[in-house]
Amino acid sequence: MGIEWTADEWRTLTIQLVSLTGFVSLNIGLNFFNSWALKNDGPGPHFDFPVFYTMTHMVATVIGACVIMSFRRPATGWPSPSQFVGYSWGLLLIAACSTVNLLCNNISLTLISLFLNQVIKATGPLPTMVFSFIMEHKTYTAYSILACILIVLGTVLSIPLTSKGPQTSVVGVVVVIISTVAASLKPVALSLVFKGLKDKPKLEPTVVLFYDAFISFWMMLLYWLVSSERAATVEYIGNRPLVALGIIAGGASMAFGFNLSAYFFTKFTSSLTASIASNGTKVVNIIISALIASALHDPRNICGVLLVCVSLMAYAHAGHLAKANPPKPLNISFLGKDTEAGKVSEETPLTPAPQSSTQCCVIS
Q: Which of 76, 285, 317, 343 is the most exposed place for a label (fewest CB within 10 A)?
C-alpha cells in the first residue's frame, strides 16, 4: 500500500513547492530584471537611476512586511514610534548597512555585468567571517574557512581580463566590493549594537525588515533629493512615463512577491533547506549570467566559475556540519577577549531565523 497523506500534509507540501518556486524564480528574475533595467548601454530601457529605483523596492518591502505581519501578528506588536525609540540606534545601523549595500549593488549594475556582480557578491562569507572573528570573537571550522578562501580564489579566476569578456569597470568593481562589505558587516554589527538590550523583548525578523526598509527609504530619499540623479529621473519619467511606470511596477512587484515567498519558504522548511536553496540560487545566477555575458570562453574563467559554484555549496554544507559539531575555541586572547567556540558572544533582540528571511528585496 502507498503512503497516505493527510490534508494538512498535502497543504504543507503545496506551500513548500509554491514558495520554493517563487523564492528561486523571483530571486533569479529580480537580479536579471535589475541588470537589464539599470544598464545605461546596449539594449534596454536605460533606466540608470539606481537610487530612485531602489527606493521603490523599499516601498514594496514595507508593504510586503505589513502583509506578512497581517498573517501572523508579531509577539511584540506592530511597529510603532515608541517601539522604534527603544531600538533606534541598532535599527539605524541596520538601515545604514542596507542602504549602502543595496545602493552600491544597484549602482554597480549600471557599470558592470550581472555575472561580475554575482561572482564578487559570492565572496560575502569571507568578510563576514573576518568581521565576526574580530568583533564577536567567533571561531569557524577549517572546512568553512577553506570554502571561503576557494570562493575568493574562484572569483579572481572568473574576472575577465580581455575585451572579449563581459563588461568590466574598475569603478563598478570597487562599488560592488563596498556593497559586499556592507552586507557582510550588517549581521555582525547587529549583534554588537544590541548588546546590553537583553532586558527588551526580541524583535521578530519581519518587524526588523519593516524598520530596515522604512528607514532605508528615507535615507535614500535624502540622498536622491540632493544628487544629480534627481533631475535626470524627473526628465526620464516626463519623456517616457509608461516605460518608467512599467519598470517601477515590474521591479516592485517582483520584490513584493519575493518577500512573501521568502517568508513562507523559511517558515515551512528547515534552515538547511533554506541555506541550500539560497546558495543554489546563487549558483544558477552565476551560471546563467556567465552564459549570457559570454564569460566562459577562457579556460581560466570556466575554472573560476566552477570553483565558485562548488565552493558555495561546500560552504552551505560546512555550516550545517558546524551546527552539529561547533568548532573548538582557539584558547587565545584576541583584542582583550577570549575567542568563543563557533557562537556569537552576545544575544541580539532578534528571534532566530534563516539568513534569507531578513533579506531585503534586492538580492545580495
A: 343
pLDDT tens-digit map of 264-277: 887 777 666 776 77
- Under a CB-based contact definition with an 8 Å cutoff, are residues 90 and 197 in contact? yes
In DSSP notation, 190-246 reads HHHHTTT-TTSPPBPHHHHHHHHHHHHHHHHHHHHHHSTHHHHHHHHHHH-HHHHHH
Nine cell digits for residue 324: 552539529
Measured CA to CA, the distance from residue 237 to residue 243 in angstroms comes to: 8
Cell of 285: 545566477
Whether pTM exceeds 0.85? no
Q: Is 280 within 8 Å of 313 (Cβ atoms)?
A: yes
Fill in the amino acid letter for 218.
W
Q: Helix or strand or coil: residue 100?
A: helix
Q: Are 343 and 199 in contact (CB under 8 A)?
A: no
The crossing angle, in degrees rounded to 10, of helices 50-71 and 241-268 is 40
Q: Give the C-alpha separation, 26 to 363, whole Å.
A: 10
Partners of 122 in the β-ladder? none
Q: How far is CA 134 from the centre of its chain?
A: 22
